[in-house]
């Protein structure tokens, strides 16, 4: 004799599955996983950059009279950026997400300044180890840009989905809120080129092998500055 309870349970499970499919539950799951995957790639590239910083700082320290303030800012900015526990849940906390992107923006700015200042040191510019690290760092910045763009797109798609009717009803029932995204204000701030001033009693850069005349030195005191890194 077939018991009615297991049969009824299977019917209810089937009806529940059909209901959840029709109200967008599965679509929310797919969009949420896409956001998590994009966020993981952002963190991966930021970690790659953080791993390059110690070697870069160690190489620059070998240059005589290099600006200590610039190195200190890079070290401190890296410490702040890596001190934040960037778990997947961070994207659901707008305040924590803002602190994270601010810390990463400060590190971007500090590294950009370091590379600009390095242009004033011919020996450092000729250092193959420094140049290799610079290429790796710039390549990582490009990867960060790509990863951030993918995250921005995936969050936009997710947020639109959970706010549209009738999927928004399912999202509210199961606790799926909109997620934090990178802000335009943050983009504008970290893309601002650093101000470099070698006046005010800071250590003078070592003179190149052939010293230019007074007129040339006055017109171009630090050489041809390199373009700052991409902000992302």
Q: Given the structure, what is the number of helices?
A: 9
- Average residue-wise pLDDT: 77
Radius of gyration: 26 Å
Portion in helices: 55-70%
Beta-strand content bin: under 5%
From the spread of the alpha carbons, the general shape counts as elongated
List the quaternary state of the chains. single chain
Description:
This protein is mostly helical and 232 residues long. It has one domain: LemA-like domain (de novo design (two linked rop proteins)), CATH 1.20.1440. Helix content is 68%, strand content 0%. The protein has nine helices and no strands. α2 packs antiparallel against α6 and α3 (68-83) packs antiparallel against α4 (94-118). The longest helix is centred in the first third of the chain and has 37 residues, at 25-61. Residues 10-15 and 185-232 have low confidence and may be disordered.
Please outline the helices and strands.
Elements: H1 4-22, H2 25-61, H3 68-83, H4 94-118, H5 122-125, H6 128-163, H7 167-174, H8 184-190, H9 214-219
Helix pairs in contact: 2-3, 2-6, 3-4, 4-8
């Amino acid at each position: 004799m077939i018991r009615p309870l297991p049969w009824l349970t299977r019917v209810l499970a089937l009806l529940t599955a059909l209901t959840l499919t029709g109200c967008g539950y599965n679509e929310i799951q797919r969009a949420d996983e896409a956001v998590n995957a994009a966020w993981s790639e952002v963190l991966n590239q930021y970690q790659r950059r953080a791993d390059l910083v110690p070697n870069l700082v160690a190489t620059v320290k070998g240059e005589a009279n290099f600006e200590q303030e610039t190195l200190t800012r890079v070290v401190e900015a890296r410490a702040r950026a890596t001190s934040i526990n960037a778990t997947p849940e961070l994207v659901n906390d707008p305040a924590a997400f803002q602190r994270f992107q601010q810390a990463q923006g400060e590190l971007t700015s500090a590294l950009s300044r370091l590379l600009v200042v390095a242009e004033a040191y011919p020996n450092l510019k000729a250092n193959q180890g420094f140049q290799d690290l610079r290429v790796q760092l710039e390549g990582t910045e490009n990867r960060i840009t790509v990863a951030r763009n993918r995250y921005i797109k995936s969050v936009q798609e997710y947020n639109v989905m959970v706010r549209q009717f009738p999927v928004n009803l399912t999202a509210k029932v199961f606790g799926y809120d909109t997620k934090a995204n990178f802000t335009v204000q943050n983009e504008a701030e970290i893309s601002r080129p650093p101000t470099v001033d070698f006046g005010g009693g800071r250590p003078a850069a070592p003179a190149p092998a052939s010293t230019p005349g007074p007129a040339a030195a006055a017109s171009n005191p630090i050489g041809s500055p390199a373009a700052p890194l991409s902000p992302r």
